[in-house]
Amino acid sequence: MSRLRGQPDEYISLALRALRPLTMRIIVVVCGDVDASARLLLEGLSDEVVVDGEFTPGLYKRVLDERVTLLGNIDEVVLTGDSWFGPMADFAPIMKRMQGGDVDFWEMVENSAGAPKAFPEQGFPGRLETWTWTVVRRRLFTSRAWKDYWSSSGGTHRAIEQESRFAAHFRAAGFVGGAAFASSDFGNDDPGVLSPDLLVQAGCPLVKRAPFTLYPPYLHQQAVIGRDVVATIAAAGYPLDTLWQHLARTVQPKALNTIAGMLEVPTGTMARSTSRTEKIVVVAHVSDVDQAPDLFRHLASLPPGYDLVVTTSDGRKAVTLSRMLEKRNAAGAGSVDVRVTPANRGRDMGDLFIACRDVLVPGRYDLVVKVHARNLRRKTMNVRRYFRRYQLDNLLGSPEHVAGILSLFDREPRLGLVFPPMMHIGYATMGRAWGAYRQPAQKLFAELGIGVPVDLISPLAPYGGMWFARPEALRLLSQRRWLYRDYGKPGRQRYRDLARLQERAVTYAAAELGFHSRTVLTPEHAAITHTALEFKADQLFSTTRGYPVDSILLIQRAGNTGYGGVVGLSRMYLRINHRILARVLLPILAGAQWAYSSARALMGDERFIRQRETWRDEDL
């Protein structure tokens, strides 16, 4: 196993249990450290556990050589690993079918294409994976050619697609190879990546991880639809929570949301059983009392009987809100608790993790609904109006819509958060949503023990700070003893703008615990946002050729446009056509520009003050 953090993910246990009836001996090789409890679990699922260093393809040969005396009565060896999900079907018929073939080795799924294309600068480098499934028979693994292969660079170098190289090498050496599922039957060279759903429908017992881990625009170019793959996996009877637990911890959240099509538009067909009830708490921060009636009106879409906790910043507002709730009969709430909290820069996030820490204790409530009615500074009336409409409609638009969201939590026990997708109307968040928060986020993740891969450009996050969540999914953040001074003035705080940092961290904190996130829209907002996105994307790609993935690579290679003009275009020209010269000149130019803009900002030039603040959006 090439990736093990603490306890093995459940998909590994399922795979080992499926292999047990097929084999005389299972040897599990763990790369890296393994704690006692994890080792005990693996020992119960195998015959031997070997702890080794970093994974390399030569590890297979070395482990077999050290146990050669145990292989005296073994006719074939299965070289496999943790790079697949299964079983999707019974392995036994496949093994029986392949026994009759006069071959020296066979693959489960033929790959004649080699490694999928890597995109390292976009955060998707070629990764060394354990083998999917290659069966090697005695005539091959006792041959001189076997020893020569592993002692040569062809057998030990860090090739990304070592398994296909292995097959090509031994076929060229005169050995006979086969495949349970030939690529020619699926109309492409790599059906394990390009046709995983068709493979399962054809009886293949496994699905590779790769279709869920590659660069999304590349998968879209190949018309690989992850949502279809997931539906096929579910139809095969594979437990999806096992799939999501592993992918949530090992794939960038925004990439996974895109690859697997994890945007939901609840409809009447998603209505849940009326017999199912959860204990729900609503945490509502209200600093703008004028917005409170609209917020409380939306809460009426929740099933009656939820608890309501309202936080506000002074006693007069608290009295006004209490009276307002009494007149509205608390909008269907079972209990109402209005809390006065210190005015602080943490806004609704500080109130959630400090003033309402008690309601986030796992086990007290099944779900927490976080909403707010606060001032949106420096925004026009239209943008403020659309922000509230977008956030509240997409979470609490109607009882039927809410029932659809609750049904998602019913069906998926490891669904951690549900929230609206990133806003891109009225806001310039798209393309730079990390802003200056990426480095502070990585520092926070290291402190909290979060090892989930980080999206490079924008995180999957509830921008605007409203969501449905399981308290258990927030545990890494809620169990920490935050202080109001952590949200203090710039220069005095431990983290840069902790409230916005926490908004961007919640999905990663949940993913570390194996909880995935989904985004949700009403049909009306799906129509609004998709048409807007389609038009904007069409305009952005209007000056480039090829598929979107080609346009993206070109644009990103050119680098930041800045504010356009001759300076920005000159930088882009240097990056594309004179990369060595650009490495020398551009840092000098950037330093000069920073000094100039800083000096103008200190002199009170409003244009340069605004430019220096564009790393963040004050209202998200």
Question: How do the helices and strands line up, and which of them pair or pack?
Answer:
Blueprint: H1 10-19, E1 27-31, H2 36-45, E2 48-52, H3 58-66, E3 76-80, E4 84-85, H4 91-99, E5 105-109, E6 133-137, H5 138-141, H6 144-151, H7 153-156, H8 162-172, E7 177-181, H9 191-194, H10 196-201, E8 207-208, H11 216-221, H12 226-235, H13 240-250, H14 253-259, E9 263-264, E10 280-286, H15 292-299, E11 307-312, H16 315-327, E12 335-340, H17 347-355, E13 367-373, H18 381-396, H19 399-411, E14 415-419, H20 438-448, E15 467-469, H21 475-478, H22 498-512, E16 516-520, H23 523-540, H24 548-558, H25 565-577, H26 579-602, H27 606-612
Parallel strand pairs: 1-2, 5-7, 9-16, 10-11, 10-13, 11-12, 14-16
Antiparallel strand pairs: 3-6, 4-8, 5-6, 13-15, 14-15
Helix pairs in contact: 17-22, 20-22, 25-26, 26-27
Keywords:
single chain, 620 residues, alpha/beta, globular
What does this structure look like?
With 620 residues, the protein is α/β, with parallel strands linked by helices. The chain contains 27 helices and 16 strands. The strands form 4 sheets. An 8-stranded mixed sheet has the order 9-16-14-15-13-10-11-12, sandwiched between helices. Strands 3-6-5-7 form a 4-stranded mixed sheet, sandwiched between helices. β10 (280-286), α15 and β11 (307-312) form a beta-alpha-beta unit. α20 (438-448) packs across α22 (498-512), α25 (565-577) runs antiparallel to α26 (579-602) and α26 crosses α27 (606-612). The longest helix is centred in the last third of the chain and has 24 residues, at 579-602. The radius of gyration is 28 Å and the shape is globular. The two termini are 40 Å apart. Mean pLDDT is 88; it is low at 613-619.
